[in-house]
Amino acid sequence: MIGKSVIRKEAWDKVTGRAKYTHDKLQQGMLHAHLVTSPYAHALIHEIHFEKALSVPGVRAVVTGKGLPLTGEDLRDRPPIAFDKVRYHGEVVAIVVADTPIQAEKGANLVQIVYEPLPTVGSPRAALQADAPLIHENLGSYEKNDHTYPEPNTNIAHRTKIRKGNMEKGWSESEVVIETSVAFSPSDHLAMETRCATAEIFPDGRIEITASTQSPFMIKKLISTYFGEDVGKVVVHTPLVGGGYGGKAPVQLELLAYLASKAVRGRKVSVWNTREQDMITSPVHIGMEATVKLGCTKDGMIKAAEILFLFDGGAYSDKAIDVTRAAAVDCTGPYRIENVWCDSLCIYTNHPYASPFRSFGHCEQAFAIERAMDILAEKLGMDKLELRLKNAILPGHTTPTRVLLNRSNVGNLPACIKRLRELIQWDQWQRIELNARTVRAKGVSCSWKTSTIDTEASSGAIVTFNPDGSVNLMSGVVEIGTGSKTVLAQILAGKLKMDIDDIHVKMDIDTQSTPEHWKTVASRGTFMGGRAVLNAAEDAIRQLKAIAACVLRSPIEDLEVGYGKVFVRDDPAIFIPIKDIAYGYKYPNGNAIGGQIIGRGNYTLRHLTPLDKETGAGKPGPEWTVCAHAVEIEFDKRDCTYQILKAVSVVDVGEVLNWKAAIGQIIGAMSMGLSFASRETFLFDRYERVLNPQIRTYQPIRFGEHPEYIADFIKTPQIDAPYGARGAGEHGLIGIPAALANALSIAAGVPLNKLPLFPEQIWRAQKGK
Amino acid sequence: MSSSSKCEIPLTVNGEKYSVIARQADTLLFVLRNHLGLTGAKPGCLNGDCGACTVLMDKTPIKSCMILAIEAIGKSVTTIEGLRDAPIQRAFVEHFAFQCGYCTPGFIMNAHALVESTPNASEPIIEKWLESNVCRCTSYFEIEQAVKSVLAEKQASKD
Ligand code: FES
Ligand code: FES
């Protein structure tokens, strides 16, 4: 069962058009909202006139931001609807609710708003200038949690500090020193399903939300926190989700749907993002500017790292704070460095606000570190893989936040590098000139990641039995496309030694009946969800054995469960079929014992601690997955265009639970990384308005532009994880942008430190423009 | 008559005849989803950019967000719900050619039309057809494998 390419449970629904996503669930009488958004990136709102909108037939209400509480996960800095001022292009200023989407849109077009534009802030470095406009004048008075440290009267929402070892010593031991800076602007997740939510409020106060989200349980909690609703009265439903990649982890439209429903006395209201809104109004992929300084001995042992990450968190901090913290946690990349100084800042700008993006701060951070590693190798005149291997993190080393690594909590990076070396024939060639115009080159990188999640985050599972002995599985992990629900079924089938077809998976989440899973993020679905499922299975097995012990007149300890039976260990001929006891057992005379078997389990990661404010010391996650990546390109020297020929990732996954699903996760993530690095960015005008909020102008990779992909695995088990499997949903992506930039830098003969790598960008770098 | 005035639109969808009262300005995608409850075709961009809304009109794939329902009068429309055991569906399942599945109906309709109309499609032709659809989850490689496997089957059964 484990390792098999089991077809995902919802596969046939998906290829027949029967799979239902949030916005597919139309209902008679449901009202529709249209968002009125800001055309400015920074402006005061003087007046809002919506009388004309209200006169449109079918328009039932216009909701504005007046009197609403501030929201935000770590720092409450965001009005759900802008009120006194707007801070990014696309920010919601009003919601128009009407009988049909068209009427709502008509109404929205008639809402008149008088703005007074303000000077804008267009990058993290600009935001740090002494004379930069302040985006949040009241930063000092915002409510926040204990581990968030805003700096009032600046544009700094939060700073994470890592202080490890002794920098003076590190620099004095360094014979070779390099410093480099990198940068990229915000971009987008571009999930094919745009974000959407419905809300309905019942007379007894019950609030029913249906949302395309990675965080149904967080929605429940936040609506309660923000608006003082009883948490038990908020019920969130999440059907299949059409792609998340981190972009559906934040809670935004759900709040708007709730407010809109409230405005029409609890009627059901649907809020659905157009593509344009989904790209800029809802949270985006974070941008970053960074400087990395590395020092090493002549033979390449890295002694010191000084790292400054300036993240473009956009107008509001929400989940960006967490992302910038996660980048700091793994700031050095997967290398042993004793002396580390890192500041990771979450900075306000007038850009759309940021959310996690697949790999949670890591592909961003890795881009900076891995560019620096290549530059260091060049200065040393050392082989690029050799330098990485020499400094590879190993059991016995400590991480930047001083977690001591062992054989279980970190994968085997040297093995990943060795395998990569073979797969890309690194030792044969690294750069060749095919002719006067064309160069081929290979770029490499390494990466690692742990999950930075709440220390008390937990996951639960319930298994119930049917009269035929088959099993229902309920878990709070959302099916966002990663196949986690199917993998959980595999884990359950393995434990109960039964056929996967006899396991019925509940796909939809209903927070009232599905046990909580913190959030479907951070590649934690199979680790935490899997442990919960194993516990639930144990619980069910105990109950099955208890009934069977009576019926079979045998001590519980002598019984085993499997193959649809409970049987006596040393004589399997003595058994009772599970179906005969799944609902309790009925004796021939009519007496009955037991009842439906209901197994329950939960799991919380152990021994996690928050980071220390001054030094960053702490244990943010349970294990580190390590990877090695390579990208091979063909570069045209005349016009700076290039083709990506091959991309390779070797990931230490611990164990592969579903082979094809795992490969799909890795190469899907690689594809996203290549798309991001080669062509994805928001283009801003000088007023920080987004010029390309459409797929035709934003231009992700399309069919036919994909290179050859190779994904391979190393298996160093994580002993606490189900079957030793490490998180791997994001890891194919992390080092890919850096590997592409490294390959192109080698081909073009100039350091390329800005993303995306448009040919024009390369040409500019060559010309020093 | 203004674009918002309603009219009766006779449609043939998946071999069944319907009569729909809708606005003249309503797109085929809107009518399929909101009037007929055929939600397989997805609203990915409403701008012709993503292909998630692809359906067949007289066997030709079209982006249903880009045409009006009234333009489909007299034509035969096939949506993903109208495919029954098409080889491409099984191929998508077997090759893990989707993850979240949101782009899948559009991709399948487009690929289905391709393999039916051009069973000997060459690599560049496959590319030309399928570049009109966007998938964010897979690497496209899996989709390519699925399409090629059906083409290969078609070739084999012809030989
Ligand atoms: S919705 Fe029609 S092409 Fe995107
Ligand atoms: S499978 Fe998710 S977009 Fe294609």
TrEMBL record, chain B:
- Keyword check for Metal-binding, yes or no: yes
Query: Key word Amino-acid biosynthesis present in the record?
Result: no
Keywords of this entry: 2Fe-2S, Iron, Iron-sulfur, Metal-binding, Oxidoreductase
Q: Which residues form the 2Fe-2S ferredoxin-type domain?
A: 7-83
Give the domain of life: Bacteria
Which residue positions does the secretion signal occupy? Answer: none
The Gene Ontology terms for molecular function here are: 2 iron, 2 sulfur cluster binding; metal ion binding; oxidoreductase activity
Q: Quote the Pfam families the UniProt record gives.
A: Fer2, Fer2_2
Q: What is this protein called?
A: (2Fe-2S)-binding protein
**What organism is the protein native to?**
Anoxybacteroides rupiense
